[in-house]
Amino acid sequence: MDSYSKKGYRLFFRIRPLFKSLLRIHVEGIDNIPEKGGCIIASNHRSHLDPFVLNTVSPRPILFMAKRELFGIPLLGWIIKKAGAIPVNRNKRDINALKKSIELLKSGECVGIFPEGTRAKPKSFRKPQSGVGLLVSRTDVPVIPVRIEGTDDIFPVGSKFPKLFRSRIYVKIGKPLYFEEKEDYKSISEKIMESIKSL
């Protein structure tokens, strides 16, 4: 994609050990993320920190689906655009965002998605939306379930700035999931969410 900055990711990957130390991130199961080939990273979502944390621990760039409103925020909008984020209109079923995600997955990229659609309350989960199920059925790529704990303590919903050193962040990455083509979107999404919860 035109806005994706590989040079920016190379720079970020050099300095991310600093962020990992600063945020006190503990990660398990990193080997479960394929080194190459299209795959979906599906994680629970409780904080704006989540995409940043996942890219800090991932061995490869994760291109996240992000709500369109974030692209209008000065500096942040520029950063997520250069990070290859895919803008999503949450007020309707965004066909363009799904098409772009499918295109990226089929070209071998790693796409990140939060099945819940938006941030959940602290220590809780929301019901998954069917978008991730649609992506799986259209691309036949593995889904890597991920559970994050602690980001909602550091940067909870409603906070303007993160509260560093308040908590550790734990990231647990599960084994790749594969699904039959005949399964419906909702069923796939629910199974993925249950896998995330069980980690």
Please provide a written account of the structure.
With 199 residues, the protein is of the alpha/beta class. It has a single domain, classed as Glycerol-3-phosphate (1)-acyltransferase (3-Layer(aba) Sandwich), CATH 3.40.1130. It has a seven-stranded mixed β-sheet with strand order 1-7-6-2-5-3-4, with helices on both faces. The model has no long low-confidence stretch (mean pLDDT 87). Helix 3 links the parallel strand 3 (63-67) and strand 4. The protein has helices at 6-22, 50-57, 76-82, 95-106, 131-139, 151-154, 185-198; strands spanning 25-28, 39-43, 63-67, 86-88, 110-113, 143-149, 169-173. Residues 39-151 form the Phospholipid/glycerol acyltransferase domain. It catalyses: a 1-acyl-sn-glycero-3-phosphate + an acyl-CoA = a 1,2-diacyl-sn-glycero-3-phosphate + CoA. GO terms for molecular function: 1-acylglycerol-3-phosphate O-acyltransferase activity. It is an enzyme of class 2 (transferase). InterPro entries: AGP_acyltrans, Plipid/glycerol_acylTrfase.
| Beta-strand segment tally | 7
CATH topology: Glycerol-3-phosphate (1)-acyltransferase
How confident is the prediction overall: mean pLDDT?
Answer: 87
Uncertain ranges: none
Distance between the termini: 33 Å
Number of domains: 1
Spatial sequence of strands, sheet with the most strands: 1-7-6-2-5-3-4
CATH architecture grouping: 3-Layer(aba) Sandwich
**The level-1 CATH class:** Alpha Beta
The CATH fourth-level homologous superfamily: Glycerol-3-phosphate (1)-acyltransferase
Order of helices and strands: HEEHEHEHEHEHEH
* Radius of gyration computed on alpha carbons: 16 Å
Sketch the major β-sheet: 7 strands, mixed
Helix content: 25-40%
Pathway: Phospholipid metabolism; CDP-diacylglycerol biosynthesis; CDP-diacylglycerol from sn-glycerol 3-phosphate: step 2/3; Lipid metabolism
Keywords: Acyltransferase, Lipid biosynthesis, Lipid metabolism, Phospholipid biosynthesis, Phospholipid metabolism, Transferase
Family: Belongs to the 1-acyl-sn-glycerol-3-phosphate acyltransferase family.
EC number: 2.3.1.51
